[in-house]
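Lay summary. Proteins are chains of building blocks that fold into shapes, and those shapes determine what they do. In this project we predict the shape from the chain. Here is one chain we studied, written as its sequence of building blocks.
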Amino acid sequence: MRQFAGAEAAAERWCRPWRLQAGASEILLLLAATDTAAVAGISAAGATPASRLQTAAADAELLLQGPAGRRSHRLPPLPAGVSPALISQVVVAELGLAPLVVDLGCAVAPAVPHLRLAGQQGPARCLSSGAAMAAQRVEGLLRQGRLWGEQLARSGRPLLIAECVPGGTTSAQALLTGLGLEVAGLVSGSMPGPVHGLKAELVRRGLRAAALEPGSGQTVDPCAVVMALGDPMQPLAAALVVAAASAGLPLLLAGGSQMAAVLALALALAPVERRGAIAALVAVGTTAWVADEATSDLAQLLARIGAHWGVAPLGFAADLHFGPDCHPALQDYERGFVKEGVGAGGLALLWQLAGRSPAALELACDRACRLLLAAD
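And here is the predicted shape, written in a compact code that computers can read:
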């Protein structure tokens, strides 16, 4: 594993409890949806807007039922590659972990045991509307996040938070921009070249519609920004981070740009005096394909978040790669497709913290991929 953000001493302190309890970690997968995913060309988490409606359900079923399982929802066709839920499933199965899946209002519910929060009906509206979610919905997500954070902290088990939100890198860029950061060109995506221009235009329209344009002179209200531009995963995850980290629980935000946005929102919501402690207990863990992407910059994104709130965020990349002997669908990751999702990077990191080699994970993923595609 490679550290790409934060101080070395802080990273070592953060790693210590994970090495001791990697196999006993809590895993939380948050499924959410935004109509932003229906914008043509915005996402490759499904080849068409219609197919992206069931991406979260299919990924959750793969995670819990495995590549040979009889799943109710087929994995949506992708322009290239295979779902990152495959990587996550291999780690979960091999380490004996038990993820909790939470549906925050997806259009299609997964056909596996999961929680669906009351009042969370349907995707958020497209962020270009400037009215993505109603105040009542966001307040409910924040309240539930705080409650879960307090409960999970009492367990004392390190917590990994993963997500599946098609279109979520665009709502991440919108949230970060609304919170006052300049992030153009830094946010990744599921295609080899992130569609920076399209994302920036949607964000610009949303900010203007919500009267939150930079330079408007308004004090930034993080809740107002989420209501205008966010997706349901963000407020629940951020409130959970604030509550759990404030109680001393180590957290791993498994993902790239979307989890950077969750960290930013958590810092914006937290009292000033708690921000340093939160940053010391929370790390963003992603894949090498995101961390090393030439057309985005997660390290710089975390640096700007740190400078804005006066902290030093931690960032790690797993060492997983797929060599020439792997199935072509896995080699597509090396070509810049898919890259991350469903906690793949963070779980690959957890694999290494448990003392296992990236080479062993590569082989296990290859076997699982061949089994999955043969079954389909």
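What the prediction tells us: The chain has a mean pLDDT of 92.
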